[in-house]
Amino acid sequence: MELTRENSRAMIYYDFRSGLTQKQCVDRMISAFGDEAPSKTTIYRWFAEFQRVKRVKLSDDPRQGHPKTVVTQENVDAVRKLIEEDQHVTYREIQATLDIDMSQIQIILHEQLGVKKLFSRWIPHSLCEEQKAARVTWCVRTLERFHAGSSNAVYNIVSGDESWIYAYEPETKNQSRVWVFENELKPTKIVRSRSVAKKWWPRLSPKPAMLRLFLLRDKERLMQNGMLAFVCHRSFLNSVKRTATAASSSITTMRVLTPHTEQKSF
Question: pLDDT band for position 251 (50/70/90)?
């Protein structure tokens, strides 16, 4: 005969009313049922329950809905709907909305729905097909000109990077993480300007061993074909002449404003 919860609770209640201690009840249950006996924690908890409320009802109280640890199709559909409505929704928000266990949320997200939370890839602009083609053409010409990097003329390339000092920081890349279903495209977001109160510090290097840092004034930078151009200081141009084989053949590359963007020569 299987020892049910109600049966074990009835025997615990009998020992409680008989004046036995918790330890005596544990010893009696183990002596009678061995490994099938209720745990020590369960016996002590029921003794405390009987003492606290004089409880005599031995069955579980009725509960509404499914247990928090149960993965049901209803919960799966509810989580799917939350993600479709807000791809930035977090574990805690799902738990607060559906009142289910955190481990089950993980099972639903990664095993049932197969979603991943990815960073949105930053892109410099929402480019049209013509603009994309222009960039591909420029890259092909550059590869041909420098023989895919094997030509010594690559030392005439002036590479550059830049840093902005802003008065206000927008949403970070980590904050832009969104849930993505298995067959969905990876998310992207347009790079937005941070603030009008900013200073631009370009760093220019005609060779790995050389580095020039400038603070450019507003009149020394301009936009050309949607890309950022700049006017080099005379001291930098003189250094290029001394290091490059031909100053007229040097190429200046500069990245656009923000990380993860293409480069273009002027």
Answer: very low
**CA 38 centroid distance within chain:** 44
Over residues 38-48, the mean pLDDT reads: 89
In the prediction, which pLDDT does 21 show?
Answer: 92
| 142 pLDDT higher than 50 | yes
Q: What is the 3-state secondary structure (H, E, C) of the chain?
A: CCCCHHHHHHHHHHHHHCCCCHHHHHHHHHHHHHHHCCCHHHHHHHHHHHHHHCCCCCCCCCCCCCCCCCCCHHHHHHHHHHHHHCCCCCHHHHHHHHCCCHHHHHHHHHHHCCCEEECCEEECCCCCHHHHHHHHHHHHHHHHHCHHHCCHHHHHEEEEEEEEEECCCCCCCHHHCEEECCCCCCCEEECCCCCCCEEEEEEEECCCCCCEECCCCHHHEEEECCEEEECCCHHHHHHHHHHCCCHHHCEEEEECCCCCCCEEEC
> Which residues face 160 on adjacent strands?
204
